């Protein structure tokens, strides 16, 4: 029965949840694997940090359950390394100590959630479901406008085959443009969209950054994709210039 429920509710779009469980304690690892498989999930096991890194890069897992205490690199450093290598699979950390420091370190290392041992299996399942629900919103598909492409999750952008080296603000600005191609966006809308804090509206920050962006996205390619719209702001041409 639980298998049927897991298949119909837990699987998201493709109906098949594939998990990587990283845990060196054999008993615990087998317990986790058996329980998760009973819920209808496909489970691979790794018991060492380097093995986990290799597997996470090699296969498209839906989530990684990662123990903090491991031989060959603790869970924090594994998580950080995954993110450094642009692996964005949701990570649920298992920590043995209920220390705030551990949780903070884990979340700062790029983990999505954590669970303190000992935990109930139903809580683990609930947190994995929550992670799965969050994934689509946090990892939208690659945006494309003409030959401009932008991957918000991987923080990468390209003009044709050329990868663009953008600062964080330039990236945010380009993402705003690419989410609304062909639309005239006011300076205020761009300011609010790309900068977290409220800046004075008379600030010329947007103009400065649009100039930076043009230097990287347009000029080297002989394009004019970011147009000035008089008395309003700027617009990304629908054909990507
Ligand atoms: Ca362990």
Précis, in short:
The protein is of the alpha/beta class and 241 residues long.
Task: Describe the model.
This protein has 241 residues and is of the alpha/beta class. It folds into 2 domains: 2-133, 3-Layer(aba) Sandwich (Rossmann fold); 143-236, Winged helix-like DNA-binding domain superfamily/Winged helix DNA-binding domain (Arc Repressor Mutant, subunit A, Orthogonal Bundle), CATH 1.10.10. The chain has 9 helices and 12 strands. A 5-stranded parallel sheet has the order 2-1-3-4-5, sandwiched between helices. It has a 4-stranded antiparallel sheet with strand order 6-7-8-9, covered by helices on one side. The chain has a 3-stranded antiparallel sheet with strand order 10-12-11. α7 packs across α9 (205-217). Residues 1-15 and 136-140 have low confidence and may be disordered.
Describe the protein's topology.
Layout lengths: L1 H9 L7 E5 L3 H13 L3 E5 L2 H10 L4 E5 L7 H10 L6 E5 L4 H9 L4 E4 L4 H18 L4 E3 L2 E4 L4 E4 L2 E2 L4 H12 L4 E3 H8 L10 H13 L8 E4 L3 E4 L5
Parallel strand pairs: 1-2, 1-3, 3-4, 4-5
Antiparallel strand pairs: 6-7, 7-8, 8-9, 10-12, 11-12
